[in-house]
């Protein structure tokens, strides 16, 4: 297995390699950890009719309500910072000076006012545009206007741009467009996180060059849009593990693979599937962009999304993306190297029939033998928080996982003695 640069090396070397592996990321000082926030698309789509759907249409009111809740309900304080507008915010044409303008019925106060409001709450505003002639929903695209649009967004006080790839034309125009917009954003002098879909649109035709992409983008979509459905989350995980050799090493401080929005708190995922989405998005060092209705979210989904230990794994400063290390029967074992020589471990039960199933594995299998050597303390983080105590490197570890659920663990290596009688969970071993 040669997929992960630095795998199996001592911690100091890992740290040094982490620095060299992340060299070449977009040099704008942003997204040193995966961005966190809220994005309207999956839950609110292109809901434009404010007369028929006043509370669900894409409007300044919707974003102001979400901004209020991000503060009052504790989202901002655990790290969800970017409030992001997706497609369908624009008027159907540019103004007389050629500038993009918001739909006047839905954003009567303008984007500058909305940005001021969002900033007054200690949050940041994200907006959406497209590299081609038209956005995916048919609104004006940015081709031919990259500098003007970047200046417009900077002038409004926008902090993040999601740049879609619909109607991109040729592959050359696609690549040039993303590069030119990246330069245009830089030239504005404003800190603007740049979210790309370049590899998603390129991949059907040729292999994306991630060395190049990460020089221009802070994060990038690789695969299809997430839906509010287990089948969609499963497909994203399968795609990611299948392609991990080519994408995992691209991730690092400043540039991240984006498996798309968190759909937790909506309609389509069971509790266990919501746990799986958050656990695996943490393992994948994914941007955590929720798409849900913060006005109506269950306390359980809210507590899950605000779980500080999971967020800490997602935001780990080492910035290495995790990967699947094995698939046995219907279990998948994933790990993510963390700072300080710690590891996050996810055990996913892919069986969709029956009840909870036990999975037994050796800690010697993790971190190329280093995660629990000579010993480690293990904390279960999801689905519930539980101290699993000290283990040594040959301890068999047993977890019980619900169908389509995940057990997320954090292992911290210790210098404890090899044979630890305090390990009461596995007396059968000694
Ligand atoms: C789309 O963009 C290309 C490249 O700028 C341009 O040549 C073409 O005329 C545009 N097509 C339409 C339909 O606007
Ligand atoms: C990108 O910028 C270069 C240099 O200004 C220009 O020649 C090229 O036409 C631009 N490409 C696109 C797609 O805008
Ligand atoms: C623009 O790019 C330069 C050089 O890559 C970098 O030092 C600077 O921080 C960037 N500025 C912004 C606003 O992104
Ligand atoms: C990928 O991009 C990098 C940086 O632009 C370049 O040095 C390298 O040659 C490219 N690789 C391929 C296979 O084209």
From TrEMBL:
* Subunit structure of this chain's protein: Homodimer.
Know the name of this protein? Alpha-galactosidase
Natural source organism: Podarcis muralis (Wall lizard)
Annotated CDD domains? GH27
Please tell me which top-level EC class this enzyme sits in: hydrolase
- Ranges for domain Alpha galactosidase A C-terminal come to 319-405
Which gene underlies this protein? GLA
- For whether the record's keyword set contains Hydrolase, the answer is yes
Q: Name one GO biological process term.
A: glycosphingolipid catabolic process
Q: Which UniProt keywords apply?
A: Disulfide bond, Glycoprotein, Glycosidase, Hydrolase, Lipid metabolism, Lysosome, Signal
Tell me its family. Belongs to the glycosyl hydrolase 27 family.
Where, per UniProt, does this protein localize? Lysosome
Secretion signal: which residues? 1-25
Which superkingdom does the taxonomy of this entry point to?
Eukaryota
Enzyme Commission number(s) of this protein = 3.2.1.-
Q: What is the recorded function of this protein according to its Swiss-Prot or TrEMBL entry? A: Catalyzes the hydrolysis of glycosphingolipids and participates in their degradation in the lysosome.
